[in-house]
Amino acid sequence: MSHYVLALSWQPAFCEFNAERPECRELDSADFAASNLTVHGLWPNDRPGGGPSYCRVDTEMKALDEAKNWCELPEPKISAKTRAALSSAMPGATSCLDRHEWIKHGTCAGTDAEVYFADTLRLAKALQTTPLNQVIAVNVGRHITPQQLRNAFEAAFGAGSSKALTLVCTERNGRRYLAEIRVALKQDGLKGSLEGNDLYLEGAAADNCGEDMWVDSAG
């Protein structure tokens, strides 16, 4: 494993394309997820090719996960405090996203589920308090450029730090929606406060957002 990737979603855009999901039917403009990046996952990664995944997971559990029968997977063994934090920081937990993330990715992180999700939540919170999150939030219902987001990221983590940042968009009818941001982290970058020297600058993938993207609103 060379690094980790922290994936944070812009939930209104996810719900633009997944309106039938329970977490999307419940989303409104007053929710935390309407104005903050939220947790998708924390992925151990190899270069090149991604992965690893499904470490020490039996074939039955893997088959359930790959079939997206996530609510049939066992719940990760985490504390009530961490479970409560996930309920707002990871809206997809309503659809058992936490079970999928643990089975596919967390089992390869070399920790137990409590440490894995606690680290994920702490890192997500660190990103939620940066200019990156703020620039996205104040541009809800507007177009924004990749450079604006890279500038905001570098305002938090230093010049050149956006080499660790990947922007992911989804497209419909010619409009690109900001869907997710992914931040590459060194293996030893999961502990303590999140700083520029925790970033893995060779971990970014190619963006697919073009010259600008739409920041979708809830509802």
List keywords for this structure.
219 residues, alpha+beta, 4-stranded antiparallel beta sheet, two-stranded antiparallel ribbon, 33% helix
Task: Report on this structure.
The protein is α+β, with helices and mostly antiparallel strands. It is built from eight helices and six strands, in the order βααβαααααβαβββ. It has a four-stranded antiparallel β-sheet. It has a two-stranded antiparallel ribbon with strand order 3-6. The termini are far apart. 43% of the residues are buried.
What composes the largest sheet? 4 strands, antiparallel
Helix content: 25-40%
Mind telling me the C-alpha Rg?
17 Å
Shape: globular
Counting helices, strands and paired strands, the structural category is alpha+beta
The residue-averaged pLDDT reads 94
Q: List low-confidence stretches.
A: none
Portion in strands: 15-25%
The separation of the N and C termini measures 40 Å
